[in-house]
Amino acid sequence: MSIKEAVTSRGPKPETIAGHIRAAIIEHRLAPGAKLGEGQLCEVFGTKRGTVRQALALLAADRLVDLEPNRGAFVASPSLQDVHEVFEMRRIIELAVVERISSLRTRRLGAIREKIGREQKAFEGRNFPLWVRLSGEFHTELGRLTGNSVLCNCLDELVARSTLISALYESFGRSSCSYEEHEVILEAIEAGNTEVAVSLMSHHLQSVERKMLDRPSQGAADLREVFRNVE
């Protein structure tokens, strides 16, 4: 839904604003530590401070935004301990996901293969924001094949936090989440080779964690520029 479509006489809903900010974080258009000024957000989304504050509270609940008394809201800046804890949880959940869907021999993998193709095209076309988003969606879409909504909600949050971590510890245009590895994992799942698929996913997630670089990004951001192409 576009901003214009979501706007009523009272402005867009908090969930709509939160969704646009979340997308900007996931696509690395907003760096960790970036200040989310209420005034600019009100101007960008054509709404009141109360609505913006509700949106920021939603993002804070997902640990994507830090709310600091007397200072305002900032895109969260994960620590190295956060890196280890997030990826520990991802391994626990995603290895179980791969084991389950591989043993089921599900036929609903075509959309995920198509997504990997889009991921490769985004990389080759140097569309890095889209590439980053699609890399994360490979993992969340596998989770959806389990049909477990609670698991999906947990995985969505973990992948979003992983993307935030990569924005902090990796340079722009570089992602440790490889579409080539995604292809190999999917092939093992399609073949019903559960043991190999689980091993490949474990190695993939460990590799992603190791490649995080201890090099913080700059936190300055012009919110008008970040959201200028949002319709």
Automatic annotation (TrEMBL):
Entries under InterPro entries matching the protein: GntR_C, TF_FadR/GntR_C, Tscrpt_reg_HTH_GntR, WH-like_DNA-bd_sf, WH_DNA-bd_sf
UniProt keyword annotation of DNA repair present: no
Protein name per its UniProtKB record: DNA-binding transcriptional regulator, GntR family
HTH gntR-type domain location: 11-78
SUPFAM superfamilies xrefs: GntR ligand-binding domain-like, Winged helix' DNA-binding domain
Keyword match Transcription regulation: yes
Example GO molecular function: DNA binding
Originating organism: Paraburkholderia aspalathi
Classification lineage: Bacteria, Pseudomonadati, Pseudomonadota, Betaproteobacteria, Burkholderiales
Keywords (A to Z) from UniProt: DNA-binding, Transcription, Transcription regulation
